[in-house]
Amino acid sequence: MGRAGLTADRLAQAGAELADELGFEQVTVAELARRFKVKPASLYSHVQSSADLKARVALVVLAELADRASEAVAGRSREAALAALGNSYRDYAHEHPGRFAAMQLRLDSETAARSAGPRHTRLMLAILREYELSDADQTHAVRLLGSTFQGYVSLELSGSFSHSEPSSNESWDHIIHGLHILLENWQVR
Amino acid sequence: MGRAGLTADRLAQAGAELADELGFEQVTVAELARRFKVKPASLYSHVQSSADLKARVALVVLAELADRASEAVAGRSREAALAALGNSYRDYAHEHPGRFAAMQLRLDSETAARSAGPRHTRLMLAILREYELSDADQTHAVRLLGSTFQGYVSLELSGSFSHSEPSSNESWDHIIHGLHILLENWQVR
DNA sequence: GTCAATTGCCTGCTACCATTAGGTTTTGAC
DNA sequence: GTCAAAACCTAATGGTAGCAGGCAATTGAC
């Protein structure tokens, strides 16, 4: 019988696609095994557990998004960079809601450290350097940006903004601009 | 045989407590049945499905939080009101992480409309009225505040802020103040 | 107080998922 | 070709969701 050619990476990759198709909750050992026309038990040579599988999907997604974000930000500065970063985050979530859900998974701290999370942070810091904040304020600002982006997109995807005017796109643009203004005046406070 | 006195409300209430004890993912028909010393099938006279049960827990939590928030905000204005609102949200999440997780559940739009969500919105609007924004800007601002609060708390609870200086409390205060400044200057842009 | 209707909960069943242990086949290195 | 490692399978356990149908306790009408 031919082999499916399973590896941890291919499983994580397929898990990410499965997440976008059926939702992240449906990323299950059994479903993934079906996709590879293989028995569930076979996956356990490559992946420790269902939790491990989901964590690997999250890592794939984080890395993917970090790639897109650095591309988007390259060559831009200040508000343009901020908008590019925010948009890359938001666009990715809209294109890949399942992957975005995977990103929300709580990783234990060592896994988180080995993830692309720190890359996201460094990218934000690079943008913030142009706003001339103190070191402490840079950290505050990273946390503000991260919170707002992640919160906005997750509320938007859950439909919170879809039943009222004006459009979510409009709010998003205003918010990005508002954050820019806030960063410009941060130290003056 | 004595009856357990099951009702949908008591199940939702118990589900909320269960969420804080074991995590929202552990809020399961089977576990809840164990708590009431009853067979799982018995719950289905009061609750349609496992998903229905979880949605009811989310509704309980949203209402609970709306109560706390309006109490906290009462009698305060502008930055003090903003801080009170944000803190009530954040404190609640810290005290009740399981309940907070329940709140993230995606409700279908009719359920969301019957939830306490609109009350949260009205409360924010009441605070924003003091900042003299246009109607459209009020909506943008509600979305900004909601996003930032929800994003900050959820990143904080997932541990994202616990491995770097300065402390998360400090960032939180700076961010609240920053949002206040931003609102004050919103129209001047 | 008696009886019928309703409600509350149970038994029993089906089906799916996660996981482990141990066996068999395939593949590649030599 | 041999052989060891890797890839995959069979089989079995135990947990969760959910449905159908039944008996018994409670309630309300009289």
UniProtKB/TrEMBL annotation, chains A, B:
Keywords attached to this entry: DNA-binding, Transcription, Transcription regulation
The name on file for this protein is TetR/AcrR family transcriptional regulator
Q: Which residues bind DNA?
A: 28-47
SUPFAM superfamilies of this UniProt entry? Homeodomain-like (SSF46689), Tetracyclin repressor-like, C-terminal domain (SSF48498)
Where does the record place the HTH tetR-type domain? Answer: 5-65
Q: Name one Pfam family in it.
A: TetR_N
